[in-house]
Amino acid sequence: MKQQLIDEKYMRMALALAAKARGRTSPNPMVGAVVVKSGKVVSRGYHTKAGAPHAEALALARAGEKAKGATLYVTLEPCSHTNKRTPPCAPLVVKSGVKRVVVAMVDPNPQVSGDGIRTIRKAGIEVATGVREQEAKHLNEAYVKQVTKRMPFVTLKIAQTLDGRTATASGESKWITGEEARKEGRRLRDINDAILVGINTVLKDDPSLTTRVPGGRDPVRIILDSRLRIPMTAKVVRGRSTAPTIVVTLASAPEAKIRKLQEAGVEVLVCRSQEGRVDLRHLMKTLAGRGILSVLVEGGSEVHASALKAGIADKVALFIAPLFMAGRDALPSIGGVSPLRLRGAVALHGMIVRWVGRDIQVEGYLR
Known about the structure:
Blueprint: H1 2-19, E1 32-37, E2 40-46, H2 55-63, E3 71-76, H3 90-96, E4 100-105, H4 115-122, E5 126-129, H5 133-139, H6 141-149, E6 153-161, E7 165-167, H7 179-191, E8 194-198, H8 199-205, E9 220-224, H9 235-238, E10 245-249, H10 255-263, E11 267-270, E12 273-274, E13 277-278, H11 280-289, E14 294-297, H12 301-310, E15 315-321, E16 331-332, E17 349-356, E18 359-365
Parallel strand pairs: 3-4, 4-5, 6-14, 6-15, 8-9, 8-14, 9-10, 10-11
Antiparallel strand pairs: 1-2, 1-3, 7-16, 12-13, 15-18, 17-18
Helix pairs in contact: 3-4
């Protein structure tokens, strides 16, 4: 029992280190590592970005000779394959001289999936697994989905009134939620690889889709536009950002408009059609192939409905303002057609509810 408490203590430390790189490591997972000897932390390390040294490699290099006889705590199984830009970590662990390795979770990547642990155990090093495993899986939920399903982790971000409305009958929506909620929404942009909206949102609001977070970075900006109605004057076309803009359209889109957008530095991605609209599952698989682990969907209401219908959404981040729109003609947060029976309603699981300024934030999983 005492050893379990000790292991959990240092694994919490490793998880906190890993989380420092949230939104920065794609297509790699977030990983933290701590080397402990005689009850003292010898060194720490975490993976900062793809192509940079892995967490355990950093921690062991910093420990040097002190790693001999120590315990290595790492949030994800050390890798064993060579199909990447950095050397495999399992052999480094073996060479370091540590006597014990504590792993939060086995790597679900089929290229690893237990092989790293087997390599370390074969060298006579004790390995303990499953310490704070659920926290580790939650931290890397986007990576887990990517390597197991070849699809990015998708979050629907919605700001609405208490009666589920996102705009008045005239289309006014700025601002339903308060500044604190909007700030949290920008933080969500910062930690996701891409942000996705429909063309109606661009035509109505002309958003820049940037984070405006100190020290943050803009996500890839994705616009669903099956008929290429996007104006050349739109902020996502002419605005300055380090992030690319991708306009997703269908094969029937006008070629002249495609060329104009490409000349303006916008990528035009022709996607498969599903009932006259962009096939969202096909799009998600395409994005996953580009190393995008997470997508934040900010609507509008028909895009939210399409995401739910296509079964691509994993999570909902709902910001609820203390307001009633009180009318059938106001725009609902989710469009589409309602189910005929209650059993067709979409259920949320693992919900977390908290105050964000004057508003309520509800987070929950769709499966």
